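In this supplementary section we document a worked example of the pipeline. Step one takes a protein sequence of length 484 as its only input; no multiple sequence alignment statistics are reported here. Step two produces a three-dimensional model, which step three serialises into structure tokens for compact storage. The input and output of this example are shown verbatim.
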Amino acid sequence: MSWKIVRDRMKHNKIAESLSITKRLTILYAISAFILLAISAVTLDWILVSDMEFEDNQFLASEIQSIHLLLREHPREIETWKKVIERETIASASVYLKYYVRILDERGISLVETPGMSEELIRFSFPAVEYLEQSGTKGIKLEATNGRPFLFMASRIEPGSAATEARYIQIALDMSHEDAIIHGYRRKMIIILIAGVFFSALIGFLVAREGLRPLKDIARSVQTIGPDRLHERVASTRWPREVMTLARSFDVMLERLETSFTGLSRFSADLAHELRTPINNLRGEAEVALYKAREASEYRQVIESSLEEYGRLSRMIENLLFLARAESRDTTLRYSTIDAHKEIEALLEFYDALSQEKLINVICNGNAVLNADPVLFRQAVNNVLSNAFQYTPENGAIEIEIARQDNGSVGISISDTGIGIEPENISRIFDRFFRTERARDFYPEGTGLGFSIVKSIMDLHGGSVSIQSEPREGTTVILVFNAT
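The serialised model returned by step three reads:
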């Protein structure tokens, strides 16, 4: 394909893209009207011409039959032929039907002819009888030497009992008037065609503009919606059925935007709140340390406290980065076969000291093999275990159940006897930085990102996480890894 063809196609595509829907519909209306009117005009023209030719041929055939009858009744009365022919042709000429008749003998000598025929039609320009008779009852249209169109027809009368020799009949119909009618008709049809296309385009433009008005109204409605008006909906107005689907789609989009915007605003507020505490701590300790000269041990204590706050900030940032990567699907999972019981037992060893200190009874039952990313699997389970140990008071219990379900997926249930979650807060437990008031009082150091990370990990694996909880009785977290 040459560059010229590519360039022409690109130019054509740009022109097509620059046309509005109204203009495109107008062009389609005009083209459709042109095609329909052109077909109608051609059809009517063909019908008109065909009907005229049929009537003309019928007329000439009828005249030949009349002349045949005249010659049979008066085979030798040439004067009678002349009177009859002159009378008929003159009478016809008065009604715009001008034709000429000539009767010849066997030698081709004219016996009788319509007055003026020799001037209008030279005898030798007349087609031969044999040629004309081949067309049967249909004449032949030719131009005479004067340039005028004529329909020719001829016939031969064989010699009979009254006539001793054959006779030839030549008849010619002047079609100048009919041709003028046809040409005038065609000129009018061209004018009608042009006018029809113009008015069709105009009407099409008005109809298209009016038909597309709801789209413009929807566009104006959407343009008025800003960050402070995301609660408004487009489909609340009664739109035509064809654009109602579009309006509902805009509403779905606005609902998602409102949810995202609200979540982003809440996330920003929560992030500011969570960052404010460690930063204020760091600033306060630094101001106290600089207020007066202190011993090296005191400065060391301030630095150690600052490192703890830095560690908290670092973990918070790492968790936020992980959530951002998980939402953008940039995290690549490295699946491998995992022994769930063995992995969880390894994680529980990390909490041995804490469980002994708080006298928490830990039980892990069941086993199953599943396919998952080992690092993310351990992080998800560890986040749930961390919450369970942090929010379970002394002399509590944590029970872990591992089981393969009927559909082949693996469920891991982690139950504790901790402080529990209020029913109205369960739906928000996976939101970033969300923490209940009870949780903030019980464990102030938390960030509220643990369950958000768990949900992101389960979403990456195509699994699910659910929570069942009763205040002051405990919480059960169920992780389900789909079969692979």
